[in-house]
Amino acid sequence: MDILKLVGLMIWLMLPAYLANPAASIVIHLTGQGKPVDFGKTMNGVRILGDGKTFKGLFSGIIFGILVALLQNYINTIFLDKSLPYFNFIAVLTLPIGALFGDLIASFFKRRLKFERGQSFPLLDQLDFVFGALILTYFLNSVWFSNNFSFKIILTTIILTPIFHFLTNLAGYKLNISPKPW
Ligand code: CTP
Ligand code: MG
After folding, report:
1. For position 172, what pLDDT does the model report?
2. Which ligand 1 atom is the nearest neighbour of the CA of 49?
3. Which atom, in ligand 1's list, is nearest to the CA of 50?
4. How remote is the CA of residue 130 from the centroid of ligand 2, in Å?
5. Which sign does the torsion angle of CA 46, 48, 52, 55 carry?
């Protein structure tokens, strides 16, 4: 498989997870801060998750990711003769849900390691949602996962995601959506 095909296939497979996180960020930017998932509670004096993880962000990210996967299925069926991977019912849910929960879990560890909300944690920030999406899909949708996520695809995802993430955040920062360019 040539490299462009591999990258294209990887983006197609990861798109529901890729778009779920920025959707959370954009919704918060447009509608204002929501109720934090940790209800403002602390653990040993430090916030459990922090103000960067809200219910509004969580649900809007998940719903947007689901809509992306459904739209991809529609395009794939109507226009592409199902030539690209089709997201089965579980994948439609596990990719965005795993992405948002991976991000939530990463914030839990960031707070424990005394990283402030929004403070950069290289690689964890960029890969938390990838691992969340892949791991949840692997466990709940293992046949679909192994049919679609070859070792090559997983490796391409891990290598290219931090680069894509940086570029989108830079765009978000320039558009005043992301508070930091990372
Ligand atoms: N966001 C949210 N709820 C989520 C995920 C994201 O409200 N579950 C919104 C927040 O406004 C957050 C922004 O999207 O600030 C960017 O997300 P992220 O970079 O994951 O959060 P950070 O603010 O960097 O916080 P942390 O240090 O905990 O990662
Ligand atoms: Mg962040």
Report:
1. 77
2. 28
3. 28
4. 14
5. negative
